[in-house]
Amino acid sequence: MLGLALSGGGFRATLFHIGSLQRINEAGLLGRIDEFTSVSGGSIIAAQLGLRWPELVFGADGIAKNIHELIVEPLRLFCGRTIDVGVILGGIISPFRHPSDLLIGNHRKYLYGNSTLQDLPARTGGPRFTLYATSLQTGASVVFSHEYLSEYHLGRLPDPDIPLAVAVAASSAFPPPLCPVKLRVDPDAWSRGNISDLHGDSYLRENLWLADGGIYDNLGLERLNRLCDRILVSDAGAPFSVDRKVRLARFSQLARTKRTLDIMSEQVRALRTRDLIRQFVSGEKSGAYWGIGTVISDFPLEERGLVGALMADSEETRRIAAMRTRLNRFSAEEQEALINWGYAQADAALRARFDPSLAAPERLPYPDAQAHG
């Protein structure tokens, strides 16, 4: 089985993954993927792809001809809006609405409408899409899919009719301002799983307090590691940077909290990435990993007699990798730079690590794009 993991990272991740998906599609691989997993900003694009999957028109070459109209254009419009500031301020102004409620409303208004998890492809009608969130109550990963909602302490809730906007909001509810997303479900609809040590707690089965899936696993690899022998990973998590002004954080509880979360997230991501690369090297799995901070010259393309990468490492690509982790407006120039970088990284990784027979593309999606910020 072939799986693709789409990491978190706000709109930066959504845009980087657009580039990755465009290259995967042009390689004829999109329709061959069995499992999509996603976190946070990756879930924004995964949900759109899953919702529109039945409408994609695949040619004899395996390339979806209308991916731009169904996926790229709506997501670029969405990433051209500032979402986070409005929902946070709205939650502060109104004592009756939490920012997460407004976040759900934005997802519903601009992308997913009234669709639910049942509108994602069924097991027999296309690939499986799994969106991850994190339980603030148990600390465990929470899985949203067409087939079930699951949390291993509680069990499984089959055929969930949960709005797609809620699932994506939960997956991208970055702490502390955007979480929790409070989800109420039928406590009697759960079935026990292999562990389910908290299944007997009816309050936990009825009331789920959820936050960004990246708190638990910013790559969303758990399911793919278990089921897939071939794994592709598009990682748009920001490269960890040295903070020479950390002394100033003593004046801001929010800054201290954010820095602490960044360190914890980086360690979890590093451990999962190292384990995945170990599996690639040992032959346990095959596949390719590319990240927004990957040194693209490390992919041995020319050494293997292949056409070189579409972009070169530069101060410009380092600026692209360092773009903000926000749900705010990305300019057209920023969007095109991120999409180009995702496309170039995916291309280099796929040809160097996954399938050297793939033809090299002639151009980037936006050849004239420059990054600013």
Q: Would you identify the CATH architecture?
A: 3-Layer(aba) Sandwich
Mean pLDDT: 93
Kindly, what is the distance between the CA atoms of the first and last residues, rounded to a whole number of angstroms? 39 Å
Tell me the quaternary state.
single chain
Write down the CATH class: Alpha Beta
Instruction: Assign a percent range to the helix content.
Output: 25-40%
Radius of gyration: 20 Å
Class per helix and strand makeup: alpha/beta
Largest β sheet strand count, sense and barrel closure: 10 strands, mixed
**CATH overall fold name:** Cytosolic phospholipase A2 catalytic domain
> How many individual β-strands?
10
- Give the helices and strands as they follow along the chain: EHEHHHHEEEEHEHEHEHEHH
Outline type: globular
Total helical elements: 11
Protein name: Patatin-like phospholipase family protein
InterPro entries: Acyl_Trfase/lysoPLipase (IPR016035), NTE (IPR050301), PNPLA_dom (IPR002641)
GO molecular function: hydrolase activity
Pfam family, one: Patatin
Give me the secondary-structure topology.
Layout: E1 2-6, H1 10-26, E2 35-39, H2 41-52, H3 67-78, H4 84-93, H5 99-112, E3 128-135, E4 141-144, E5 148-151, E6 155-158, H6 164-171, E7 181-184, H7 202-206, E8 207-212, H8 222-227, E9 230-235, H9 253-282, E10 286-291, H10 315-321, H11 332-354
Parallel strand pairs: 1-2, 1-9, 2-3, 9-10
Antiparallel strand pairs: 3-4, 3-8, 4-5, 5-6, 7-8
